[in-house]
Specification:
The longest helix has 16 residues. Strand 5, helix 16 and strand 6 form a beta-alpha-beta unit. This protein has a 13-stranded parallel sheet. Helices cover 37% and strands 7% of the residues. The two termini are 89 Å apart. It is extended and about 120 Å long. The protein is an alpha/beta fold and 588 residues long. The chain has 24 helices and 13 strands.
Length: 588
């Protein structure tokens, strides 16, 4: 390292060959070099270094010299000059391990490289292998690895230097270069363990997605579809196969539209996991009652069962679901021709927690099954029936009496009249009402429902020719919570649109498509006066000019106008945004 300090720095230049008498380490130090090498220092730095030398000459014992510390300003001068010294030495001669041959108190000191020095060199000692018992793949000598030796420390007095036999010249760095390098080759003398070496080897390996925690990989797998997860990702490796079989991916099973799903596949899926809470087998035509029964027996916690357009299924499958899944809350089995009242009765008896049912286009269901279901499921909130011609006013009345929590009710195309609809006024929680295509529905019944049901926000009266302007005016005035009003193919005129714009401050969606009496006046008036309107449906309103609609689009950009031309334009815009390019070739 060179010497720490020189006791008489001012006289070193004249007595270069007799430094041993004045230096407690018998040689020049960095302070000597700084004080007398004035060409590299400015006036302030030179003055500070001179003051430090004068302070040092006042010390009397070697112990005081060893404990002497420079001030921060002087230390900065020291370090700056030391860096310039090290920069002049080839890097292959002085490496990081060179500074670990002294104790930690002096480990940061630079090397004094004066040729005039006559310093005695300490016998080089081998650096320890950082307490590592065995270090494979390092390529170092075995004697170094097996014989760790303590790091030699800097002597604190002239006597110690003599006893240690410091006879070499410190200006010659060859003795220090014999010391082995640290296995890491870094400046830190940290302990190296086999675990650290394993981490080093892992750092040298290229990054791999499997190094991510399994929780992150599971989140990535959650964005894959069932087909991608089972037929692609699971075939990459065993680890990914196990991730694909994680229970969270089988809690909500969506098999809709997959014709390759058979009863055997359902049985194998059922055996994998019993924590299933939802299954969707809509449009799966190769599944029979046997497959549904097998998965019902293996899914006691099932809460949602969806099976649209599975015409091959019968009461057996729904009864199995009802018997083995007492926690069932949602049942959507629309367009199943073979379902009868028997399955609905079992559902009402076994599953009292059902909240949402959909039996649209199940033509064999009658009032008997619907009434049994209403009595057994008092917490029902949603019911939707469509074209169930055997369902009459009795079912509507029973649901209104036994299910006071109903919020969404739909009896589209059922054999329901105003006498049954009037019972819906009991439903104080009613939010959405679908009365499309009701044969005998009068204006007074609709107005009474709107008046009594204060929370009603969506009303669908499409395909009812009895609904007129007077009914729409009452709805606009009394429907304080109404946001959606559908009047397709109703017997209304421009007056209905004008009253909506004048009296309603909440209606956002109005659809008057196929209303032949709607003209430019009605469309313009509602656009100008309504502050809440966001959508106006004018599909096939033949008396509304397309130029008028185009002008309204420009004047009221916050409103979406639906016509044949406007819908085509929006479709093309979305296609262009998705990268679609029209084929302009003239080839036939």
């Amino acid at each position: 390292m060179g010497h720490f300090l020189s006791k008489n720095g001012k006289r070193v230049k004249k007595r270069r060959r007799k430094v041993r008498k004045n230096c407690f380490l018998r040689g020049p130090c960095m302070l000597c070099f700084i004080v007398h090498n004035t060409s590299a220092l400015d006036e302030d730095q030179f003055e500070s270094a001179s003051k430090a030398a004068e302070r040092y000459t006042a010390l009397t014992t070697t112990e005081e010299c060893a404990k002497f510390l420079l001030s921060p300003k002087e230390l900065s001068i020291w370090e700056e000059q030391g860096k310039s010294l090290l920069s002049s030495v080839p890097a292959k001669l002085i490496g990081p391990p060179l500074f670990r041959t002294v104790c930690s108190d002096y480990s940061e000191m630079p090397v004094c490289k004066r040729k005039c020095a006559g310093v005695q060199a300490c016998t080089p000692c081998k650096l320890p292998r950082s307490a590592v018992g065995r270090v494979p793949e390092t390529g170092l000598n075995n004697d170094i690895a097996q014989c760790p030796v303590s790091v030699c420390t800097l002597p604190t007095s002239t006597a110690e230097c003599t006893n240690l036999g410091l006879e070499g010249n410190m200006g010659d760095c060859s003795s220090l270069l014999q010391q082995p390098l640290s296995p890491l080759g870094s400046e830190d003398s940290e302990v190296i363990t086999p675990e650290n070496l394993t981490d080093l080897r892992m750092e040298s390996e290229p990054p791999n997605i499997n190094q991510l925690p399994s929780s992150i990989l599971l989140k990535v797998f959650a964005h894959l579809s069932l087909k991608e997860r089972c037929l692609s990702a699971s075939l990459v490796c065993k680890y990914w196969r196990d991730l694909g079989l994680d229970f969270q991916f089988w809690k909500q099973l969506d098999l809709s539209g997959r014709q390759q799903i058979t009863d055997d596949v359902l049985k194998r899926i059922a055996s994998k996991n019993r924590n299933r809470i939802q299954i969707n087998i809509s449009d799966c035509r190769n599944i029979s009652d046997t497959g549904v029964s097998s998965i019902a027996m293996q899914s006691p916690g099932l809460q949602k069962y969806i099976a649209y357009r599975c015409k091959q299924l019968s009461d057996i499958s729904l009864i199995a679901i009802a018997c083995h899944c007492p926690l069932l809350q949602k049942v959507h089995v629309g367009n199943q021709d073979k379902l009868t009242d028997e399955s609905l009765q079992q559902l009402g008896e076994k599953c009292p927690d059902v909240l949402d049912i959909h039996f649209g286009q199940c033509y064999k269901i009658t009032d008997e099954g619907m009434m049994a279901l209403a009595r057994g499921c008092p917490r029902l909130q949603k019911i939707y029936m469509q074209e169930n011609k055997l369902v009459t006013d009795k079912s509507v009345k029973t649901f209104a009496e036994h299910c006071p929590l109903l919020q969404y009710v739909g009896f589209m195309g059922c054999s329901v009249t105003s006498q049954g609809v009037i019972h819906l006024t009991r439903l104080k929680e009613l939010i959405s009402l679908d009365l499309r295509h009701i044969t005998e529905l009068n204006n007074e019944t609709v107005m009474e429902v709107v008046k009594r049901c204060k929370n009603l926000s969506a009303l669908n009266l499409c395909l009812n020719w009895s609904i007129n302007d007077r009914c729409v005016e009452f709805i606009a005035k009394e429907g304080k919570s109404l946001k959606e009003l559908y009047l397709v193919s109703c017997k209304i005129t421009d007056y209905a649109l004008i009253t909506i714009g004048q009296y309603s401050a909440t209606i956002e969606t109005v659809d008057v498509g196929w209303c032949k009496e709607i003209t430019d006046k009605g469309a313009t008036q509602i656009s100008q006066t309504s502050k809440s309107l966001r959508y106006l449906g004018l599909m096939r309103c033949d008396k509304v000019n397309e130029d008028t609609v185009e002008r309204l689009v420009q004047e009221y950009p916050h409103i979406t106008f639906s016509t044949v031309m406007q819908d085509c334009k929006r479709t093309l815009e979305r296609a262009y945004q998705m990268g679609w390019i029209p084929n302009t070739s003239t080839a036939s």
